[in-house]
Amino acid sequence: MKVNQLVYEINDINLENDELMLYETLFHNANGYIGIRSCFEEGYEKGYNTIRGTYINGFYDIVEMKQAEKLYGLIEEKQAMLNIADTQSIELKIDNESFSLFEGTTLRVRRFLDMEHGITGREVLWRSPSGKEVEIIIKRMTSFYQLSLFTIEYSIKAVNFDGKVELLSYHIGDVMNYSNPDDPRVANESLKHIIPVDVDCVNGASYIISNTLVSGLSVCTGVKHILSKECLEKMDLLVNTVTSSYTFDIAHNETVTLTKYSIFSDSIRHKDCKENAKAEMTKALEKTLTEHYSHQADYLKEYWKNTYLEIDGDEELSLAVRYNMYQLIQSVGKDEHSNIAAKGLSGEGYEGHYFWDTEMYIQPFFTLTEPGIAKNLIKYRYTTLEKARENAKLLGHKKGALYPWRTIMGSECSGYFPSGTAAYHINGDIAYSIITYYLATKDIDFIADYGAEIIFETARLWMDVGNFYNGQFRINEVTGPDEYTCMVNNNYYTNACAQFNLKWAVKFYDLLTESKKISHVVDKMNLSEIEIKDFEKASGCMYLPYDETLKINPQDDSFLEKKVWDFEHTPKEDYPLLLHYHPLCLYRHQVCKQADTVLAHFIFEDAQSLETIRNSFNYYEKVTTHDSSLSTCIFSIVASKLGLTHKAYDYFGDSAKLDLFNTHKNTKDGIHTANMGGNYMAIVYGFAGLRLKEDGLHFAPNLPLQWDGYRFKVNYEDSMIMVEVFKNKCIFTLISGTGKTFFVREKEYRLESSLIISQ
Ligand code: BGC
């Protein structure tokens, strides 16, 4: 692997099946609306597995989820993101010899992702079994500028021969979802969810409309080709596949290019998806491919400008961080019908579901760099608030809204409630993300229009799920972030989130009352002053477990009573534990899959003394396996806070490399978007110690020994600030907007243009 600036590339090819599936993920193309895995256009050898997936964010079918025992309220169906028509297949024949890396000789090969220009590609110099040498350059792009558009530019150069070439390009409606019955993180039954119902050719473009089996949705894909030279052209239309063939003579040294435009449209966003696909195709063809490339580069120029982050002296990790940031813009939904899935649009792991990953790991990145996107993510939760109200009712709550643990269109999709629906902290996470969005932007109008209703409904739910006992507000029978400990009383993280949620419900009520923006919310929700008083009371006496002997916050009421997992005698191959031990066995031990109380210490750092945080960190570090990709980034942040910069750096490195080096061994099923956001946080919230607090922006910068320095930009209120951290000093520069007061290690400073602070 070679890393360089904004290009990630590999220059050798390992044709092992697992490697190919890994690179399908790592080089996938996506733009937040569509995602296409990077499979070889010509396919693999017979017998190879592939996840030849093409996805639309938020486009789903409803799938039965049979419960072994029919208890009241258990979910019996879920939504699953669908693999839709395949438009990436292209076969090349040279004088009847088919191009394949599994045959002939590969003289040179390079696969790349160019994050500056937003394209991926494959460059091959190949010698056919009969000795014909051909150079093939394939570039693929999912446009950020026209979200419906995917292009493949397929160029062939005859290096040492004159001959006849045939290009066969496919548009395949007959597709299925991927499954793996042995991995709970992937769907376990492979189903055909969409059926092609109409195939048509309009102005030389083929269109396939497919309907979902149950959800009543439709998707239309359109494909149109342009060849750079005259040829014999044929199109075969079958009900589920369209084959377009192009036959031509090629001369020694001549280059011929096929450009394939694919358009995607769905009935969630468009009443008539075929009409919309046709209109999008016309729009796409109005521009040359060069113009499309140039729009793509412009979009990314702006993105890298807003998300600017540089590390001096660590090129490999620096590129890994940028790779992660690129994947976030590829994955995040750009409208209120979609959000950001745990695997983005890169694979079918977790079935395209949205989790708390969004609010706690990804949104913090967008809030500071692209607040418009953060706003959209909140709007998505607003759009699904009604479903959350229904979910609360199903669970027996008399008021409030309970967001689903995992979902696409808003209703619960988690089949195993102990580590799904019981994770009530999702409500507090969503509230937290709205509050921090407000702290970063002070956008009170947005709170009045969208945020407040969510905050009040989630606060209401806490009042219903918890109860006062011995003068304390307690929350029983919930699951915290650590999925190796389920259904407990008073999970520290959950209680702290609920407290924050309730406290801010009161604050927003006061703020909106002051700014005379409360009445429509009060009327719509029938919100009473008594409820606000109750929120205040519950948050004021929220029970946060503390152990006097260990001087730590126990993860929950019973955590410390359990025996500690026998780490010493657990073989390496048994990790992740979830694939080798019964859940009950895990639940009975002190063993954490991921940061739980440690996460609470990061986001609610003022709730405990530094000593307690240090003790907790040391304690939980010993019992945490980091089997979840959401863990090491948080340990890195808290290690930074505790001045353990070396440790913070190691955790940060683990998180940065997780997908590029496939350290969790499941990147073939998709990237880990939460980890990618967390990795950014490990620098900005971790090393630089940024916190958004009510009195302003705080920093506590550290520099890992391995680095010469680092710098990044953040949006705060109406200003853009550049932060640069070096060994002996930090420089803060106001790039745009008005002057700001901020804090470095609790000391107040005023930034009008530029400030140098010695460390
Ligand atoms: C983690 C959850 C996370 C989910 C999706 C699980 O392994 O334990 O915290 O939300 O993955 O990323």
Textual characterization of the structure:
This protein has 759 residues and is of the alpha+beta class. The protein folds into three domains: 2-278, Beta-galactosidase, Chain A, domain 5; 354-545, Alpha/alpha barrel (Glycosyltransferase); 688-759, Maltose phosphorylase, domain 3 (Sandwich). A hairpin with a 3-residue loop joins strand 18 and strand 19 (241-250). Helix 5 packs antiparallel against helix 6, helix 14 (597-603) packs across helix 16 (632-641) and helix 16 packs antiparallel against helix 17. It is globular and about 85 Å long. The structure holds beta-D-glucopyranose. The site of beta-D-glucopyranose has 12 residues, from loops. Beta-D-glucopyranose binds at residues 342, 350, 355-357, 481, 483, 593-594, 628, 630, 674.
